[in-house]
Request: fold
Amino acid sequence: MKNINIIIILFGCICFGQQNVKVSPAFSILNEFDKVRDFTINQSGDEAYFSIQSQTENISVICKSVKNTKEWGTPTIASFSGKHKDLEPFLSPDGLRLYFVSDRQLSDTISGSKDFDIWFVERENPSKEWSKPKNIGAPINTEHNEFYPAIAANGNLYFTSDNPKAIGRDDIFFSEFSNNSYRAPISLSENINSEGFEYNAYISKDESYLLFGGYNREDGQGSGDIYISYKNGDAWSKATPLPKAINSKFMDYCPFVDETTNTLYFTSRRTKGANKDFKNLGALQNFLHSYENGNSRIYKASIDLKQ
Reply:
């Protein structure tokens, strides 16, 4: 198994090295908002969801944008969001369910907020409205926090939790979908999880690879980096960081892959020109209103992550 993992890691590095990976801003129409993070898109590439947050992140709303011909339309608040702290949307591969995270109470009759749970909305077809939000329930949701759901084509669920069963502070957990229900979640192996923070998993539709965020790891660029692990049978290879063009010395997180176009979307707090000596207020304003100003923004890169 060790030799197999080494081969997989080396192959991944060679594969990435042969690709001319360029990172660019994904959505200039979102530049007016303080913080934008998380991203999910349907298979036809014309319906996208993301989180828009206030500067302090105490307000977080899930919004959507629809693509008309070649242009993305002005964002609107999703029908199920806007009242609670909602974030981290993820469309199921068939586009008929959207999973997300919320601190809303289990009943509208209860005021205030609770710990973060995983919720979902459903629709009969892409032209229909979303249902009312439904809590995914046990054994996924607990009295602890559950974050960042990601669903494979077979229904298997990957998510982040600070459950005491975690190896570290936050872990990536896995729950098998069997007989139309979820089995008790398990923390993934130390090839993925560590004593630190692992978060924001993306699972490929066929479960052949897993992307996730790792914080301040020795092999990272600093702060948060995005890692990849490949599945070999029932085991996951030792995770390795994505190329430096994607990972930076700033916080890079929240990966999502449009597998139809081999486009990686991710959130970053990268900053360009922060060390400038601003001579006037106009120069400062230009920087503060720029895309790479240190606030969370969504970026994209063309990269083939398959083995």
Q: What stands out?
A: The chain has one domain: 2-302. Residues 2-302 form a domain with the Neuraminidase fold (CATH 2.120.10.30).
